[in-house]
C-alpha cells in the first residue's frame, strides 16, 4: 500500500464527511416530503369521510321520507278505497231513489182515485150512521174534498188526512160523549142536550129536562120517550160531562134486527 500523506487523509476524510452529510440531508428531505404527503392524504381522507357522512345522513333522511311517503300512500290508498265504496253505495242509493221517483207518478195514478173513493164511501157511511156530531163529521168530509183540490198539499199528506178521518169515525163507536146542538122533531127545530154511548144508544133531552128522545136509525127519525127515561137520560148526560161519577143507568136501545 502506498503511503499517503496526512494532509491527503484529512482531505479525504473531509470529503467523506461532506458526502455523508449530503446523504443525510437528502434523506431528511425525502422523509419530510413523505410526511407532508401522508398529512395531505389524511386531510383529504377526512374531507372525503365528512362528505361520506353527510351523504349517509342525507340518504337516511331521504330513506325515512320515502318510507313515510310509502306509508302515507298506503293510508291514502286504503282511504280512497273506503271513499270509493261509499261513492258506490251512494250511487246505488241514488239509483234506487230515482227508480222510486220514476214510480211516483204511477203510484199517484192509483192512490188519488182511491182517496176520492174513500171520501165518497166515508160520506155515505156518515149519511147512514147514527147522526151524533153530524155537522162536524160532514164538515170534515167537505174539508177532505177541499184538500184534494189544493195543489199545495202533497199526496202523502192528503192520504194521511183521509186515514185520520177514518180513524175518527171508528172512534165514535167507543166514545161516551155529550154535547149541545139543534135537532128537528116533527118539523120543529129544538135545542137539546145529546148523549151517545158509542153507536149503541143515541138520546136527546130538552134543555128544561121535560122531554127526551131516542134516535131510530132504521126510520132515520127521533122518537119521543116516556117520562120514565127523563132521569136516566139526564144522569147519562151529566156522567158524560163528568158532572156525576160513572154508574149504571137505564137507557133505551133498539134490539138488533128490530123493525
TrEMBL record:
Residues 1-28 form the signal peptide. Keywords: Coiled coil, Signal. Residues 56-100 form a coiled coil. It comes from the Bacteria. InterPro entries: UCP028069. This is DUF3450 domain-containing protein. It comes from Colwellia maritima.
Amino acid at each position: 500500500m502506498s503511503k499517503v500523506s496526512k494532509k491527503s487523509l484529512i482531505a479525504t476524510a473531509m470529503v467523506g464527511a461532506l458526502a455523508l452529510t449530503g446523504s443525510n440531508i437528502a434523506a431528511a428531505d425525502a422523509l419530510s416530503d413523505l410526511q407532508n404527503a401522508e398529512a395531505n392524504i389524511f386531510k383529504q381522507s377526512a374531507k372525503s369521510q365528512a362528505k361520506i357522512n353527510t351523504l349517509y345522513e342525507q340518504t337516511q333522511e331521504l330513506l325515512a321520507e320515502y318510507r313515510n311517503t310509502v306509508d302515507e300512500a298506503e293510508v291514502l290508498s286504503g282511504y280512497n278505497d273506503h271513499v270509493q265504496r261509499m261513492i258506490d253505495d251512494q250511487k246505488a242509493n241514488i239509483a234506487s231513489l230515482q227508480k222510486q221517483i220514476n214510480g211516483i207518478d204511477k203510484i199517484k195514478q192509483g192512490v188519488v182515485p182511491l182517496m176520492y173513493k174513500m171520501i165518497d164511501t166515508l160520506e155515505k157511511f156518515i149519511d147512514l150512521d147514527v147522526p151524533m156530531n153530524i155537522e162536524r163529521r160532514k164538515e170534515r168530509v167537505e174539508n177532505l174534498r177541499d184538500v184534494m183540490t189544493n195543489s199545495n198539499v202533497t199526496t202523502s199528506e192528503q192520504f194521511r188526512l183521509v186515514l185520520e178521518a177514518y180513524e175518527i169515525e171508528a172512534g165514535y163507536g167507543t166514545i161516551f160523549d155529550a154535547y149541545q146542538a139543534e135537532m128537528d122533531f116533527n118539523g120543529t127545530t129544538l135545542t137539546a142536550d145529546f148523549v151517545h154511548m158509542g153507536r149503541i144508544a143515541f138520546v136527546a133531552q130538552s134543555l128544561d129536562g121535560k122531554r127526551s128522545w131516542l134516535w131510530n136509525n132504521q126510520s132515520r127519525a127521533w122518537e119521543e120517550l116516556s117520562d120514565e127515561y127523563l132521569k136516566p137520560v139526564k144522569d147519562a148526560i151529566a156522567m158524560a160531562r163528568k158532572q156525576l161519577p160513572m154508574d149504571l143507568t137505564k137507557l133505551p136501545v133498539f134490539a138488533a134486527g128490530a123493525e
